[in-house]
Amino acid sequence: MLYWISIITNFIFLVATVWLGIYIVSRSPRRLVSWLTGLTLWSIASLFLNMLLAFNPPPVPVYLPPWVPLVFPFWPAGTTASGWSGWLQGWFVIPAIIIWHHTTVILRPGKSDLWRWIRVIFGYAVAALVIYAHLFTNLVFSSASGNPLFLNSLKPGPIYPVILALLLLFTGMSLVNLRRSARSAPVLMQKKQLNILTVATLIAGLTGPVALVTAAFEILLPRVILTLLLGTGVILLGVGVARYSAISEGRTIRRDFIYNAIAMGVITAFYLLVTWVSAQIFNVPGEVYIFIVLLAILTHSLIDISRQALDYVFYGKDRRTIRLNLQRLTKSVGEHDLEDSLAIILETMCTTVRATYGIIIFFEEYKLHPIATCRWRGKQLPVSQGDLKIDDVQHLEPDSF
Q1: To bridge 50 with a disulfide, which of 90, 195, 307, 375 should be the other Cys (CB 3.0-4.6 Å)?
Q2: CA-based nearest residue to 45, from 293, 231, 200, 291
Q3: Distance between CA 83 and CA 296 in Å, rounded?
Q4: Helix, strand or coil for residue 267?
Q5: Could you give the CA distance from residue 397 to residue 401 in angstroms, rounded to a whole number?
């Protein structure tokens, strides 16, 4: 039962993180935040992939082409011949933490000062050292024994506690960056999304303390517990960044996001059925499921991008503009998120007239509700219902001035 729970959980999170990363980048390709978030999600997806390969190790290839290490540079030498222990050590989570820390620095308001860049550069230097130690030494993990379904199957090396401490450090700095960004956010909807990102970072960051306690006291903890924490955190993170980017660009994505998620779910289910039937008939190894489904997600997600690239070959500038506008219109059809739309409009109005703050008030059942705010940090509305009572009404006839 634990084996199948671990397989299904890691597979679901693998598919979700790969698709989310592509979705975020394809919807906001000119934003550095989108690319960094995509790299964070794909890095975590690689961790889920290695877990799947460790739970069901593929057969050792008779001949390994020399280009394989170039395509998968973070797999240590001899991974394919080391059984489950080699696959389980094939990826480490700290590069994703460092990339996400860089993302939170960019989300901070104002210009990036020297201290921010020092922290970013220091983070990438730490990630490079950890990757080097992981690939070429036994300092991270000293040995492997037991069952790969449990966390104590990998014996920590001398620098493993140091790596976990650094992971906690950069997770904490990311949380501080997000909290400060949320306090400074001028729009209520942006503040909500930044709070969601804070919660997502906290959930994913719990994997560090759990791994540290498990290693210190040699607790027999199922590895799927870390998968659930990490997967839940990165899914919330991806959704939060997608909505934050959309709000910052003056658009909403609720219908488009749900539509794409359902479409990708149907495609994944179809390819799973086809590969399962092929495996039953032709006795193909089960690991083929993983790579075929990932390839299907990649190809179907890149259809729109491929069409835009082909437009440059077959159409002139005017026709390309018309087709691009039609594609954007298609994505926005049905998007009627009132709060998001009003928040975007209000921010534009307040910025234009340089307002100190702005509030759009919604009347519901004789009560006042702030449905959108901009640069307003008070807990109570500055007006009451009596202040907004109508003193006089004049009904205008048609064609009258």
Answers
A1: 90
A2: 231
A3: 27
A4: helix
A5: 9
**Residue written as tokens 């306090």?**
183
Helix (H, G, I), strand (E, B) or coil at 155: strand
Candidates 179, 110, 108, 192; CA nearest to 372 is 192
Helix or strand or coil: residue 285?
Answer: coil
Q: How far is the C-alpha of 141 from the C-alpha of 50, rounded, in Å?
A: 16
Radius of gyration of the chain (CA): 25
Q: How far apart are CA 69 and CA 392, in angstroms?
A: 78
DSSP helix/strand/coil, 359 = strand
At residue 197, what are phi and psi to the nearest 5 degrees?
A: -65, -35
- Provide the β-strand partners of residue 358: 374
> Residues 130, 94: contact at Cβ < 8 Å?
yes
Kind plus residue range of the DSSP H or E element containing 340? helix 338-353
Q: For the chain, report the end-to-end CA distance as a whole number of angstroms.
A: 76
Q: Which residue has the tokens 């488009």?
A: 256
Output the pLDDT for position 349: 87
String of DSSP letters for 165-221: HHHHHHHHHHHHHHHHHHHH-SBHHHHHHHHHHHHHHHHHHTHHHHHHHHHHHT---
pTM for this predicted structure = 0.79
Per residue in 297-355, pLDDT tens? 888 877 777 777 777 777 777 777 777 777 766 666 555 567 777 877 888 888 889 89
Return the SS3 of 361.
strand
The dihedral sign for the CA sequence 120, 126, 130, 132: positive
pLDDT value at position 42?
A: 92
Encoded tokens for 153: 């199957």
Residues 6 or more apart from 239 whose CB is under 8 A from it?
20, 196, 257
Mean pLDDT of all residues in the chain? 82
Q: How many residues does the chain have?
A: 401
Is 281 or 334 the better-scoring residue by pLDDT?
Answer: 281
Cα separation, 18 vs 221, whole angstroms: 27
What are the distances in angstroms from CA 236 to CA 33, 193, 229, 241, 242? 16, 10, 11, 9, 10
H-helix segments, 56-93: 68-71, 84-88
What average pLDDT does range 384-401 have in this prediction?
79
Measured between alpha carbons, how far is 175 from 104 in angstroms, rounded to an integer?
Answer: 8
Task: Give the pLDDT confidence score for residue 331 in this predicted structure.
Answer: 61
The C-alpha atoms of residue 141 and residue 129 are separated, in whole angstroms, by 15
